[in-house]
Amino acid sequence: MASLLQLLHLIFSISFLLTCRIATSNRTPKPYVVYMGSTSSSNNEGSEVQVAESAYMQLLSSIIPSEDQNERRSLTHHYDYAFKGFSAMLTENEASILSGHPDIVSVFPDSVLQLHTTRSWDFLETERRILRASATYNKHVSSDVIIGMIDTGIWPECPSFNDKGIGEIPSRWKGVCIEGPDFKLSNCNRKLIGARYYPTPEMNSIHGSKMSPAAGKTSSGSPRDYVDHGTHTASTAGGFPVVNASYYGLAGGTARGGLPSARIASYKACSKVGCSSSSLLKAFDDALKDGVDIISVSIGVNFFLSNYKNDPIAIGAFHAENMGVMVACSGGNDGPFPDTIKNTAPWIFTVAASSIDRDFRSTIQLGNGKTFRGSAINLSNLTKTRTYPLVFGKDVASNFTPTNEASNCRPGSLDPEKAAGKIVVCVDNDPTMSRIIKKLVVEDMEAIGMIFISEAEKDVPFDSGTFPFVQVGSVEGLQILHYINSTKDPRATILPTVEIPRYKPAPVVAYFSSRGPARLAENILKPDIMAPGVAILAGTIPHTDEPGSVPVGKKPSQFAIRSGTSMSCPHVTGAASLIKSVHPGWSPSMIKSALMTTATVHDNMGKPLTKGSGNPANPHEMGAGEISPLKALHPGLVFETTATDYLRFLCYYGYSERDIRSISNTNFSCPSNSIKDLISDINYPSISIANLSRNQTAAKTIQRTVTNVGLSNATYIAKVYAPVGLVVDVFPHKLVFLKGVTKLSYNVSFFGKEASSGYNFGSLTWFDGRHSVRTVFTVKVQ
Prior knowledge:
By secondary structure, the chain is an alpha/beta fold. The protein folds into 4 domains: 2-110, Peptidase S8 propeptide/proteinase inhibitor I9 (Alpha-Beta Plaits, 2-Layer Sandwich); 114-356 and 507-633, CATH 3.40.50.200; 362-494, Glucose Oxidase, domain 1 (3-Layer(bba) Sandwich); 683-781, Immunoglobulin-like (Sandwich), CATH 2.60.40.2310. The protein is built from 20 helices and 39 strands. Strands 16, 17, 19, 20, 21, 23, 24 and 25 form an 8-stranded mixed β-sheet that branches. A 7-stranded parallel β-sheet has the order 7-10-6-12-14-15-27, sandwiched between helices.
């Protein structure tokens, strides 16, 4: 009740502020989120929730002019379980007045965030040569782990959500299965135990975006997925095993999730257009109230935020962490450029994407008999027995079109009469045009097929449906163009895609995967971990209304092949769920640490992990390395990042004690010396130092504390792998865990007088004869 009295005080004080109201030139109301920090209790139910909602309404009424009351006196969402606040229509001036009050943490625009859009689990386990161990662990696996998927909803008929053999729903589950015109209560079962949706019709009119018919459906009253993103991610994280799964014969095998026995709760907060901040926060609040154990979020901002207080995912994840619920998030698809990683708060498990040991290739056969293999997922019906005219885009340009535009197959650049019935070659000199746009341009010309010459994403196969499409690199592309120029009648054909099994090397950092360092806090290493995200087979919705998506005579596939960090995130969610099922008492940070310190840094050829260029991958690209779920079940030692660590992080980052106390609902006091350099000292499973000066006369020292979760009476010895010139020392060099001792601390010092300028990468590993506990570090030497 104390929090409600504070809210009433807030209403009074804001009413007083309004007497000093400042005129503004922008009086157009827009959607805003008002974030008010943590609740005083996580048991707010029934009458207390109603009182809180009434108080929010009074607050809204106090700031909205009387002439606008009828139109704008309503809440889009209100939050009252894990955190306080609401979303509503406000003018810029009204938002400014609210943000200036000491009892409100932040007020920010209700912006639109974007979706980060079988064999993978077998690859993760087989390549670690510990598959036999899984049979032992599966005897102890619990089916009570509940995964909350915040995404585009779910297609309940997908076979991945079969509940055969799964026991009764855990009694602690408080969630619901909301019905809709196309979603029945019976669509939920012992596997899919919950389904909610959050209508966001304002995204169309207020955010100025035009919805497609399918996107419009996602904003209607139903948890059903009309995008396929949510269905794909949910089946990857915890899907029921489905034998003989494939995408029209490709990627055949058993499709399953990381923890097939896990329960799934779907929270539809997104459409094809994106996800509103207010809906994401409501989904977080509901998921925590419902009782989920892990939350998976394959979503992120498509711009850089100035701080964590304006980030709905960071806010929701902070309160989830405080309640013992892990949040795994995709890192974004803006690679291969540095400083592009998203979802970088330390309490978020940030995931990069990698390939697996399977590739998809299509053969180009030229009229002169030469063949080239390129990357593709096409269901072409072309054959070797017939070839078609082959042309370069610039040679079928529409009138008055610049050569460069036609070569790149930009919209409006090609002449349909010239391109029809031919295979068109397009290049990639214009990075602003995606390959899907170029493919649509060529397809609209009624061309037979398309050859795309580009180094970008050439190892990430593009699904072109039944349209013959193949991508080759510049070396092969130059030979194809030379052939076109060397004959009067160039011809070619594009054959259907074939699967290349046991592909090497794998894993490799995906071209598109966003890279660190993190812009907001470089003293926290991001991404944290890497997981499969290239050409992943998982459940989908039936694509019956998309021309060219289903081969003639075939039924819509129940599975699809997708790429993105959206696909890598649920792999980590599934792995974390497996660990949670075996170690139910472990905190989110212990699970996170276990996956990071046991991650592998070698591919299936036994060599260090690489990126698409073939060069070695570094921690800004792959985090601690590729997840190894079964190894993580017994990590030996873990780094526990506590609530105090996260609050100190906020102090070091520069937030006021007032805001931190509101966010945490504590009387926490910041250390007297709170500077950003000290962020490196929070007890994280990796180490990042943003500024190590060569001129420092003394080494920079970082402290870490480890918890023994293995056998007692264990002794660990440290081994450092550091680049030439960077002096790294550990003290003590030996950690001895006697009976009754579970926690020990150590210091790591870094001295960079002789080190190379820029980023220096290395690792520190603790060995006890059975366990290898590896901590990666990155040090920027100035």
